[in-house]
Amino acid sequence: MQVMAFNPRKGKGPVLCSKDIADAASWYCVFVLVALLVLSMFRDSFMLPNHANNIIDNNQLLSHPCDEIYVVGEGETLHSISDKCDDPFIVENNPHIHDPDDVFPGLVIKITSSHHTYK
């Protein structure tokens, strides 16, 4: 004897069971996640030129770390400024500095860096 299942959608295609619907939904979720991953990779690659420009700007800043006139900041010493600005002759070029240990924030000094180019 043959048993027939009741199909209310007779003539409208196969009836999907809940397992088939769950499998289909899972594959759609996987597809969406992969698409988002690929899009995020492309977004990062489009951001690369801006990042490269920042690197170039930072290198330009490193080539000219200090202006000719420098204002001493909080916690700086002549030694740290000398290293930062590549000027080993700060005391010699600033006759108003009588004691190298008496440096305070706001003190204005002249920098003659070896990397500094005059126009």
What does this entry look like structurally?
The protein has 119 residues and is mainly alpha-helical. It is 49% helix and 5% strand. About 9% of the residues have low confidence. The chain has a two-stranded antiparallel ribbon with strand order 1-2. The longest helix has 46 residues.
Feature tags:
single chain; 119 residues; mainly alpha; two-stranded antiparallel sheet; 3 helices; 2 strands; 5% strand
Summarize it.
This protein is mainly alpha-helical. It has helices at residues 18-63, 78-85, 90-93, and strands at residues 69-71, 108-110. It has a two-stranded antiparallel sheet.
Give the helix/strand layout:
Blueprint: H1 18-63, E1 69-71, H2 78-85, H3 90-93, E2 108-110
Antiparallel strand pairs: 1-2
- What's the assembly state of these chains? single chain
Shape: rod-shaped
Structural class: mainly alpha
The helix content is: 40-55%
Over all CA atoms, what is the radius of gyration?
A: 35 Å
Keywords: Membrane, Transmembrane, Transmembrane helix
Pfam families: LysM
Transmembrane segments: 25-42
Domain LysM: 70-112
